[in-house]
From TrEMBL:
This is transketolase. GO terms for cellular component: cytosol; nucleus. Its cofactor is Mg(2+); thiamine diphosphate; Co(2+). PROSITE patterns: TRANSKETOLASE_1. The record marks H31, H266 as: Important for catalytic activity. The active site is at E420 (proton donor). Binds 1 Mg(2+) ion per subunit. Can also utilize other divalent metal cations, such as Ca(2+), Mn(2+) and Co(2+). PANTHER family: TRANSKETOLASE, TRANSKETOLASE 1-RELATED.
Length: 683
């Protein structure tokens, strides 16, 4: 596509720059510098290349745009407004105000046209890799000769801060290996971060780094003015089909401001006289705020009309596809709608106590083996722990570039390598694309490496399923470096995240059932290395409520509430106490957050008043105070050794828990008075 300059180009670019100054200035908060510096490339991209329909922001084959340097969100809001998305001028004026459509960083599901939530640097870069992987996969599965249905590009704006973050490095490395020619990253090379010139901390050769990753690297030396060079770089990026591209764009941060080129314009509003000077410099009325010339609106609405026409043509192509490939069309449109296939739940394994004891990581493998043939929506993999996580279903094909001979883009199993953080953030992008339920796997302890991505999964409502094995001191000999004592409570504390710790086969099936039905909630499945017996009284239906009475008695002296691999230990303790005439109920609580959503009557029937409640878990006891009067768990780090010896060292055995239980019972009898459930609260 050759570059034809338009008379409105300079006016439109000046509009973006002055609006950025006004938006941030009115809020007296934000980052005007990057939007002003990237106005030219934004204008060229969105008026000449970007394919989307603002009147239907969910058109499936739209190009995806990610602002990885999310602090520059004023730029994205301005572009959305100019293009005619559901973002008014009043919304721009309400930037960073409470309950506005223009929050301090872009938020998916909040502002029309925002693909992914960004802000924490580097996350958006990795999301972009996931979006590009999703397109490559869909194209390989559903495109046919004459029907190039899924062929969109993913464009990512990134900055120095993002490239310093490890999560971006992990994702970029994998993107190069995967040869994602549909991914175009535009690097705002302005040499400024919050601390000042990047010379103080970031002096690497970005070109050589990305060449080593297997990327195409292009340069635009004058990103402030050279629109033809910007246009040519994007054309060249789109033409490269076997490598992702990074365009190193030299810009001046805060271009046009008195502070241009300094960190002073990075994260603070321009002063009033500077804004007036800026507008005068571009021939705009200096005293008129939020000024948009008619020709700017006309230019962007023309781009929007082009997008609407492209969607109309695509819909016609999809209709013809339905005639030629009815089965594929039915599956594709079902996935686009976000619905899972009918009856997949019937594939979930069901267990009885007669079934052999197995590790819950193995039980997870059995679930995946059972449901994968019925769920083409599942796409996932492991961070170099496939043989330990047990996530590779026999017969599935690896997602790999066909040229490698290792798989193809239609494959559904992803080899993430040792890149936990990148894996989590890429999975967010896979889910954001639509019609994909991503699962990712590592040891529970190493989910901590990916904490930033997990948090954004929850905030952004991304249905990402973490298969987190080796979940306690039960992993044994690897010792405290690998034993996740504190990880569970960290994950349980994250809003809109379900942390499951199943105790047997039925509970593992229940965890998958709820995780796959929770379309706006990520889940972490905390799974054991050691074998667990299948328990009398457990069912998928009961466990799917997050907590239930596994062993009921009347007039109990004590209730023990537990999760995961400690439930059978609690059951052993209850059996020992029964022989002594002590009545103990047993509650399994595999998922706190799901249990908390049950009605009050049910919750109080499970953790009822009348007798003390003792919690048991081979993790920190923090958080169990909400569900129990007394807590037994790990006071500090674990230990290295055979797992049964480690459990014995910390007193997590049937006989010792029976002894602890008797102490708790005696204490509360001596204390006297009614024992009220800890769930009974004033607030």
């Amino acid at each position: 596509m050759s570059f034809t300059p338009e008379s409105t180009d300079n006016t439109s670019i000046a509009t973006i720059r002055t609006l950025a100054a006004d938006v941030v200035g009115k809020a007296n908060s934000g980052h005007p510098g990057a939007p002003m510096g990237m106005a030219p490339v934004s204008h060229v991209l969105f008026t000449r290349f970007f394919n989307a329909n603002p009147k239907n922001s969910k058109w499936f084959n739209r190009d995806r745009f990610v602002l990885s340097n999310g602090h520059a969100c004023a730029l994205q809001y301005i572009l959305l407004h100019l293009l005619g998305y559901k973002l008014s001028m009043d919304d721009l004026k309400a930037f960073r105000q409470l309950d506005s459509l223009t929050p301090g960083h872009p938020e998916a599901h909040h502002t029309d046209g925002i693909e992914v939530t960004t802000g924490p640097l580097g996350q958006g870069f990795a999301n972009g890799v996931g979006l590009a992987m999703a397109q490559a996969h869909y194209g390989a599965v559903y495109n046919r000769p004459g029907f190039d249905l899924i062929n969109n590009y993913t464009y990512v704006f990134t900055g120095d801060g993002c490239l310093m973050e490890g999560v971006a490095s992990e994702a970029a490395s994998l993107a190069g290996h995967l040869q994602l020619g549909n991914l175009i990253v535009i690097y705002d090379d302005n040499h400024i971060s919050i601390d000042g010139d990047t010379a103080v901390a970031f002096t690497e050769n970005v070109e050589q780094r990305f060449l080593s990753y297997g990327w195409q690297v292009l340069h635009v030396n004058d990103g402030d003015h050279d629109l033809a060079a910007i246009n040519g770089a994007i054309v060249a990026a789109r033409a490269e089909k076997t490598k992702p591209t990074i365009i190193c764009l030299k810009t001046t941060i805060g271009y046009g401001s008195k502070q241009q080129g300094t960190h002073g314009v990075h994260g603070a509003p321009l002063k009033a006289d500077d804004i007036q000077s800026l507008k005068s410099k571009f021939g705009f009325p200096p005293d008129q705020k939020f000024y948009v010339p008619k020709e700017t609106y006309d230019t962007y609405r023309a781009a929007a009309l082009r997008g609407a026409k492209l969607e109309s043509q695509w819909n016609s192509l999809l209709a013809e596809y339905a005639k030629a490939y009815p089965k594929e069309h039915a599956e594709l449109t079902r996935r686009i709608s976000g619905r899972l296939p009918e009856g997949w739940e019937q594939k979930l394994p069901v267990y009885t106590p007669a079934d052999p004891a197995q590790a819950s990581r193995k039980l997870s493998e059995l679930v995946l083996t059972a449901i994968t043939p019925a769920l083409p929506d599942l796409m996932g993999g492991s961070a170099d722990l496939t043989g330990s996580n047990l996530t590779k279903v026999k017969g599935t094909v690896d997602f790999q570039p066909p040229s490698t001979g290792l798989g193809n883009y239609a494959g559904t199993y992803i080899r993430y390598g040792v890149r936990e953080h990148g894996m989590g953030a890429i999975a967010n992008g896979l889910h954001a694309y639509g019609g994909i339920v991503p699962f990712v796997a590592t040891f529970l302890n190493f989910v901590s490496y990916a904490a930033g991505a997990v948090r954004l999964s929850a905030l952004s409502k991304h249905q990402v399923i973490w298969v987190a094995t080796h979940d306690s001191i039960g992993l044994g000999e690897d010792g405290p470096t690998h034993q996740p004592i504190e990880t569970g409570i960290h994950l349980r504390a994250i809003p809109n995240l379900d942390f499951w710790r199943p105790a047997d086969g039925n509970e593992t099936s229940a965890a998958y059932l709820v995780a796959l039905k929770s379309t706006q909630t990520p889940s972490v499945l905390s799974l054991s290395r050691q074998n667990l017996p299948n328990l009398e009284g457990s069912t998928i239906e009961r466990a799917a409520r997050g907590g239930y009475v596994l062993y009921e008695v009347a007039n109990e002296d004590l209730t023990i509430v537990s999760s995961g691999s400690e439930v059978p230990i609690a059951l052993e303790a209850a059996s020992l106490l029964k022989k002594e005439g002590v009545n103990v109920r047993l509650v399994s609580l595999p998922c706190w957050s799901v249990f908390d959503k049950q009605d009050e009557q049910y919750r109080l029937s499970v953790l009822r008043s009348g007798a003390p409640i003792l919690s048991l878990e081979a993790l920190t006891t923090t958080g169990w105070q909400k569900y129990s009067h007394e807590q037994y768990g790990l006071p500090a780090w674990g230990a290295s050794g055979p797992y049964l010896k480690v459990y014995e060292k910390f007193g997590i055995t049937g006989p010792n828990i029976a002894a602890v239980s008797k102490k708790v019972i005696a204490f509360y009898k001596q204390k006297g008075g009614q024992v009220v459930s800890p769930l009974v609260k004033a607030l």
